[in-house]
Write a structure and sequence with these properties.
The protein has helices at about 40-55, 70-80, 105-110, 125-130, 135-145, 175-190, 205-215, 215-225, 255-260, 275-280, 290-295; strands at about 10-15, 60, 85-90, 115, 160-165, 195-200, 240-245, 250, 300, 305. With about 300 residues, the chain is an alpha/beta fold.
Length: about 300
């Protein structure tokens, strides 16, 4: 079998820790309020050193809730001071916690691109997946962001939403679902946004545990394998990014991080040893879970490939 190799490192995706306000049933890193793993200041500084040397690199922040890291604002400010584009993957409900009330202003002032999870445009489905009351908080947060200019084509304040299927099936076509989301959210709540990204539920972490408990793992893996499309391989995320765990360890993607599938031996293993030339040509570690990224339309951190 021909090895899958990275092409170039365009994005540094940094997982700032597994602490989160919620414990969603599809979460691949099994984040939650009781998790204690958070990136420390030393590794934050290593991230900034890499960004300083590589001016075209995008910083993509994830978690858990990345905003719960005590060094979050410092990292964003310094990355923006260097002129780097920053994306934050937010669950929106943090805006209504004491720690998050200043976040909308902060995101606006730093021109952070927000990619927010909203697994459906109906209250019942979202609350089933993410907890009672989550939908209404998310709607209020999106309305607040819209009032500040996020999601409007006339500004540089980008606001994207993320859809995950509620069960063991593949998402509908991204363009079709985006149109449905935009129509429903505009008509019901006067909400606008730039893009909808559709992600398959990966057979990793809590969702894998759920599939095992319900006896659906084999069937779901069969669905993913049957929907495999070779043309998606060129664009999958691991070929264009490097993933950094909260402790500075490097991975091919956030899913490999969750599975503790480290980079192959012989490649840099920690952010302090970052070498773009070596990492750009690296052989990527793959497994059965990779069918989740190559099924149907396929997906990257920026949504569907086709």
């Amino acid at each position: 079998m021909v090895p899958l190799r990275a092409l170039r490192v365009e994005v540094m995706q940094v997982n700032l820790g597994y602490r989160c306000l919620m414990a969603c049933r599809h979460c691949h890193v099994q984040a939650g309020p009781d998790r204690v793993e958070l990136m420390d200041r030393e590794n934050i500084e290593w991230v900034l050193k890499v960004l300083k040397k590589h001016p075209s690199m995008v910083l993509d922040l994830t978690g858990g809730s990345p905003e719960l890291n005590p060094h979050f604002k410092y990292l964003v400010r310094e990355a923006r001071r260097l002129g780097r584009h920053v994306v934050c993957r937010s669950n929106l409900t943090i805006f209504f916690e004491d720690i998050g009330q200043e976040l909308p202003d902060f995101y606006r002032d730093q021109a952070v691109e927000i990619t927010a999870s909203l697994p459906c445009y109906t209250e019942e489905t979202v609350d089933t997946i993410r907890g009672r009351g989550t939908f209404q908080k998310s709607i209020r947060a999106l309305q607040q962001l819209n009032a500040m200019g996020f999601g409007r084509d006339s500004t540089n304040l980008r606001l994207n939403l993320v859809y995950n299927p509620e069960g063991a099936f593949l998402p509908a076509a991204e363009s079709t679902l985006e149109e449905t989301y935009k129509k429903a959210l505009k008509e019901r709540y006067d909400i606008i946004f730039n893009r909808l990204f559709t992600f398959s539920n990966m057979p990793v972490g809590r969702f894998r545990d759920h599939l095992i408990r319900t006896g659906h793992l084999e069937k779901y893996m069969g669905t993913l394998r049957k929907a495999f499309r070779p043309e998606t391989v060129q664009g999958i995320m691991c070929r264009h990014l490097i993933n950094v765990r909260w402790d500075g360890r490097l991975f091919d993607c956030d899913f490999n991080q969750a599975l503790r599938l480290h980079l192959h031996e012989g490649y840099p293993q920690h952010i302090r040893d970052f070498d773009p030339d070596a990492l750009s040509g690296r052989e990527i570690r793959i497994g059965d879970h990779c069918f989740g990224c190559t099924a149907g339309q396929g997906f990257t951190c920026g949504g569907a490939i086709h």
